[in-house]
Amino acid sequence: MKFPMPDFILVACTLATVLSGGVFFSWAVTVVPGLSKLSDAHYLSAMQSMNREIQNPVFFAVFFGAAILLPISAYQQYGNPIFWWIVPASVFYWTGVMGVTVFANVPLNNMLDAQDLSSQNLKTLRDAFEAAWNRWNIIRAIASVATIGLLIVGLTKK
C-alpha cells in the first residue's frame, strides 16, 4: 500500500501541531501552577533555566515543523473538504502560537535571561514577568487547542 505524499504531510503536520500544543497546554495546567508556589528567587531561576533548555533541536523541529507543514498541507489538500479546515488551523497557529511566541513570550524570556538574579529586586522582576508570560502562554495554549480541533474535524471530513 502506497502512502500518498499529501497524506504523509498531513499526518506529520497534525503530529507536530499536537506535540507543540501539548507543550503549551502542559505548561498552563501543570508547570505554571507548580512554579507559582516557588519563592521569587527559585521561580525566576527556574524560568531562566527552562527558557534556555527549551531552545533545542527537538522542540524547534516540532514547533517550526507545525508552522511550515500547516500551509504546505493546506496547499496539498486544495480541492478537498479538509482544505477549509486546515486554512483556519494555519491562521490560528501562525497568529496565536507563532505570533504570540515571537512577539510576546520570547521578548519576556530574553528580558529575564539578561537579568543577574543575584543583584535584582526579585519581587519587582517577577511581577514584571510572571503575569504577562502566563497570560500569553494561555493564549498560545488556546490557539493550539483550536488548531488541533480544526485539524481533527477536518480529518473527519477527508
Describe the structure.
With 158 residues, the chain is mostly helical. It has one domain. 84% of the residues lie in helices and 0% in strands. The chain is built from five helices and no strands. The longest helix has 36 residues, at 122-157. The relative contact order is 0.18. The model has no long low-confidence stretch (mean pLDDT 95).
Features:
mainly alpha; 158 residues
Principal-axis shape: elongated
Beta-strand content estimate:
under 5%
* Major beta-sheet overview: none
| Structural domain tally | 1
Q: What's this model, at a glance?
A:
With about 160 residues, the protein is mainly alpha-helical. The protein has helices at about 5-35, 40-55, 55-75, 85-115, 120-155.
Question: What layout of secondary structure does this protein have?
Answer:
Elements: H1 5-36, H2 40-53, H3 57-76, H4 83-113, H5 122-157
